[in-house]
Amino acid sequence: MAGTAFATIAAKLKYPLAACTFVEKECIPITAPAIRAALPKSGISPTMASSVRDAPITSGGLGVPNLYKLMGTLRTALLVNQCWQRTPTRHLLHTCIEDMVLETGLYGLLWHLPSLFALDITTFLDLPCVRI
To answer: What is the rounded distance in angstroms from the CA atom of residue 2 to the CA atom of residue 53?
Structure first.
């Protein structure tokens, strides 16, 4: 299926993708040629709505991974992984997270704040400590 074909391409992008800082609009020209090539070979119209194309197979979609969401997931996984290892990077990340908590007025443990998910997190992305 098209999701499988694109997953092979996405697998080759996983390693460098975590270090990239693309915005969502920049991911479209990267994935569009692969999608245009994979969908017709799978017998699927290349003009299919992206909401159906990107939806999981269990929901009736094609399961084509969204490059932008994949990039965010990989970066988050690396960040969490580094927070648990005993490396200098761990200490730098903890310091940056503590700075973000103080600068935003959120006091306490960041992961245990009930209001964190109600906040518009995009307003905090310009803080120097949030950049990876």
So the answer is: 9
